Amino acid sequence: MGKRKSAALAAKSEKAEEKVMAKGKQHIKSPKRAPVENAESMAKRQREISVSEFFAKNRHLLGFDNPKKALLTTVKEAIDNSLDACEEAGILPEITVKLDRLSPKLKEPEVDAAAKDSGEEKVEKKGAKKGPIPTERFHLTIIDNGPGIVATQIGKIFGKLLYGSKFHRMKMSRGQQGIGISAAGMYGQMTTGKPMRIISKIPKEAKATFVELKIDTKTNKPEVLTEKETSWPHSSKSGTSVEITLEGRYQRGRQSVDEFILQNTLSNPHATFHFVDPDGQKFDYPRKINELPHLPSEIKPHPYGVELGRFHQMAMETSAKNLKKFMATDFSRVSDKVADEIFKQAGVKDMPMSKATHEQLNKIHEAIPKVSIMSPPTDCVVPIGEDLIVDTLKHQTKADFYTATTRSPSVYRGNPFVVECALAYGGELPGDEQMTVYRFANRVPLQFQPTACATNRVLTKMDWKNYGLNQSKNSLPTGPIAILIHVASVWVPFTSESKEAIADYPEIKQEIRLAVLECARQLSLHVSRARRAAEAERKANYIDTYIPFIGEALQEMLKLSDPQREKVVGTLRNTLEKAKLEGN
Amino acid sequence: MGKRKSAALAAKSEKAEEKVMAKGKQHIKSPKRAPVENAESMAKRQREISVSEFFAKNRHLLGFDNPKKALLTTVKEAIDNSLDACEEAGILPEITVKLDRLSPKLKEPEVDAAAKDSGEEKVEKKGAKKGPIPTERFHLTIIDNGPGIVATQIGKIFGKLLYGSKFHRMKMSRGQQGIGISAAGMYGQMTTGKPMRIISKIPKEAKATFVELKIDTKTNKPEVLTEKETSWPHSSKSGTSVEITLEGRYQRGRQSVDEFILQNTLSNPHATFHFVDPDGQKFDYPRKINELPHLPSEIKPHPYGVELGRFHQMAMETSAKNLKKFMATDFSRVSDKVADEIFKQAGVKDMPMSKATHEQLNKIHEAIPKVSIMSPPTDCVVPIGEDLIVDTLKHQTKADFYTATTRSPSVYRGNPFVVECALAYGGELPGDEQMTVYRFANRVPLQFQPTACATNRVLTKMDWKNYGLNQSKNSLPTGPIAILIHVASVWVPFTSESKEAIADYPEIKQEIRLAVLECARQLSLHVSRARRAAEAERKANYIDTYIPFIGEALQEMLKLSDPQREKVVGTLRNTLEKAKLEGN
Predict the structure, then answer these.
(1) Backbone dihedral angles phi then psi of residue A425, each to the nearest 5 degrees
(2) Residues A48, B160: C-beta atoms closer than 8 Å
(3) How many angstroms separate the CA of residue A108 from the nearest CA in chain B?
(4) A466 to chain B, closest Cα gap in Å
(5) pLDDT given at position B310
(6) Of B452, B463, B478, the CB nearest to A10
(7) A165 touches chain B (CB under 8 A)
(8) Are strands A410-412 and A415-425 parallel, antiparallel or unpaired?
């Protein structure tokens, strides 16, 4: 019935589109031929593209595709930075997100079911000609109690793309590229012309610094409009507040700011969040644990993951005096013994770095894979933990079975990573919908591009029919099941700068698969246990129901006394119970 | 049977993985706490990230995820550039791709069915510890007969990321970012340490220029090792040859270099391709038409698509003397009359650019959406054409029904674009497999990330059951059907710099949907026509089969003579034939 109805609706909406098509389908005019170019005329137009210009034009790469997502991305980048800063400084995070609407509230857009499902806005159906998409204007304020930023760095941190402390190290953190927050500011500036405003206080200064800045997209440099001392208007002894005015769209529900903050409270139970929505409603999420997660440590690159080009560069930049020292200090898991082994394989002797030729470095690099080297240390990746991810899933679902697993760390391209998986089944989970998948990377909820994610590749390729679920080819299974996957790494490879989906590295997919399989196996046990329990229950009911009658029948047939009958019934019951148990 | 077998296999492979899991699943050691940071210690580590460093670390964003894809991406970037250059210079392209293997040939890797399906390499199942993935080393040479590059530009074009002529204009071309070929060279350099070698000749010089260069990734600048005059070793009067030595993996089949070149011959019937594969086998694909496609023209930005930030920047950079001239010359579709209308809405008078305040520019920008402005000119986007895309599909499939449509151009974010779709059905297309989708953007075949592509979002959301195909929720339909979609635009928005999938703009999805619907409607007509023909055939057979018997029965019952019987049978046949026709 439901299906027939939706087919009818589809047919109807296609009718409606026919008009558009009739209008849209016209004969294409034969275009004029553009002037022919030559090498000289082309050379005149060849020039440098600043990284800000690049991302301004390609802003969908950073998650600024549409007004709704732009608003969320801005909140996300600010929260990521605040959490990272607090944790690195050993501070339990307390973060306030405040959204003020500066323009009239738009009506909730009409969305069709399919678009709603994927969180997209409906496109107006009126052919090519139309004005810009209507948006709302917001003033976003995010305040944290982090360590603050030293005054001289504020300009570059917020006013320059590709600037930061996280890119050049191998350490697990939410931010990694030095693009996010400055890109959010740039988006605000592009859409409203307003500068970013930053107030930051470090503990050793009594006063805070206030900076108002824009990004010069031509040069990718901060243009500081105001910089002055100010008092820190919050109770924490240090912290940073960031204000961005931007065009956006505020809607609740899936892929919303609300949902993002809620999911953050689940993956960061040590953080307190406050959210004031555009209608002035205040939501408080106090922290659930008063202890910071283990701080991940920074590691050196593992020789197996270092390509020749980088190897040469490291050799050029090292402070080590000789080759052996270089190998032993600039790489992880290279002891003097391992270095000797590599040199032996390469036919190269230890020598001062300045003496080592290009050719000798090539030989050393070539010898590396021939030597067995221990896997990189893995205390640099910190999982959330099985208990906490099950809790997270319990917050999101009402199921009657939960299981979780944290894999031990593994390595891709020299980067350690760890995968965790939690699974919920049954209970109030809808049996006729596709599996719900919650994805996290370095504790950050991933809300977009689920089908582009490595998790999806794994989940759709698994055979879920083995676990009693329905599944069509290359699809997620249908049934009362939800899965949470967390990938933590010193460098999570994403499919784009907006960090929405995990890229397709075979090693990562393999670990995801094994984590999901472990949970699925528990599910399988649970399902058959439940089936057995139901079966036993059914049999027990038979016994309880029929035995008294059998007793009476036997009493009549064999002329038994009441006590005799009781005894026979008792024996019978025991025998049957025993048979039932053995039967399983 | 097939299903049962695959389930058994799945169970078996899970067994095999159990060992890995047992090994992988260990207790995570409690990590040491990293030293706590403060604002000062963080500041010391904050620094600039060069765009080359960024893309070297994030090379999967550029399509260098794994050796096989890296090889393909390198070929692709070089071909894209050659085709663009030839067409801009009005030259019928002739391109030679030569792959020399420099290392021993590796055995074809063992791939499981699922991995084969998605073109991925199988991950070795032995837990965390393992050496680098084995690769092959290639020397790639790509030679074109394009206009050549002036000597002074060669360094920057090939030795600097984000440099080129295509980014700052609004014109349809294959390349657009100024990243591709230099990134390919950088990848070669990273994996083999070898420089790029370029020879280029322009028509007006007798000699060619030879340049050997590396990229300094720290600064994103070319490091020229050799630059000298040389003779052009080819017969064309101008052209460019590029040589890159790189690690890669050569495999035939899906997502291979071979397939990419073949698909290019289909979307570029005006180009001749030669390919010499690593085994020395030579493939020639002579051009099929001797005429260049219409050259797309460059356009100015449309006011509706220009955000405030860009508007201010354009105002700063314009050579126009006054506001009205600025509006009328720097934007498309702004006549003097439209400019007056905008000024009236904004409450601003025309004035010299130097006098215009920030506030006045804001008001003008705010007024733009209130004025009705014609859609941008669309001769800037050049479709392949319905006949040619059907031909392309005919080359790839043996179906018994083909249809195609080219939509009229539309606009997203101020950028004109056009969508074309071709559909093949029936014939030798397998009925039990998912729809095959061929994707092209600005004539470039897209071979990766199909599920991340806007085309996939559209195709999986459509109700294909209406067209007699099987389909499960959110999946492509199953049946004997293949679809080709081409999106052409002055700026195709991709989901990542590797330009593998089209980003999710509602306007683009809408046009794709309408194009597919047009083809699907033709399919629907074909299917019902075929059904009617089959039905008529069946009825005709009934008539032929049963009428003689009916005639005999009537003859016996009514004692008819043979001529009488013949007459009755004739009348009956006519009546039935007529009924059959009317019945339809």
Answers:
(1) -145, 145
(2) yes
(3) 17
(4) 7
(5) 84
(6) B463
(7) yes
(8) antiparallel
Judged by CB atoms closer than 8 Å, whether chains meet at B38 and A380 is answered as: no
* ipTM summary value: 0.80
Q: Where in chain A is the domain with CATH 3.30.230.10?
A: 386-527
**109-128 in chain A: CB under 8 A from chain B:** 114, 118, 120-123, 125, 127-128
Chain-chain contact of B496 with A496 (C-beta, under 8 angstroms): yes
Instruction: Residue B45: list chain A partners with CB under 8 A.
Output: 165, 168-169
In chain B, CATH 3.30.565.10 sits at 55-104+133-285
Which chain B residue has its CA at the smallest distance from A462's CA?
B10
Query: How far apart, in whole angstroms, are the C-alpha atoms of residue A372 and residue A374?
Result: 7
pLDDT digits (tens, 9 = 90+) for A185-228: 999 999 999 999 999 999 999 999 999 999 999 899 999 999 99
Whole-number Å distance between alpha carbons of B396 and A169: 48
Q: Is A48's Cβ below 8 Å from some Cβ in B?
A: yes
Query: What is the spatial distance between Cα B470 and Cα B478, in angstroms, rounded to a whole number?
Result: 5
Q: What is the pLDDT of residue A10?
A: 45
Portions of chain B given CATH number 1.10.8.50: 303-370
* Residues in chain A closer than 8 A to B313 (CB atoms): 217-218
In this predicted model, which residue has the larger pLDDT, B187 or B176?
A: B187
CATH no. of B55-104+133-285? 3.30.565.10
For residue A424, what pLDDT is reported?
97
Q: Report d(CA B559, CA B552) in Å as an integer.
A: 10
The stretch A449-457 carries a mean pLDDT of 92
- As beta bridge partners, residue B481 has B425
Residues of chain B contacting A341 with CB distance shorter than 8 Å: none
Asked if residue B125 has pLDDT above 50, the reply is no
Q: Above pLDDT 90, what percent of chain A?
A: 57
Q: Over 80: is that where the pLDDT of B122 sits?
A: no
Structure tokens at B291: 């005429």
Domain B303-370 architecture: Orthogonal Bundle (1.10)
CB of B21 within 8 Å of a chain A CB? The answer is yes
Closest by CA position to B515, among listed B375, B409, B359, B414? B409
DSSP single-letter state for residue A470: B
Domain B386-527, CATH: 3.30.230.10
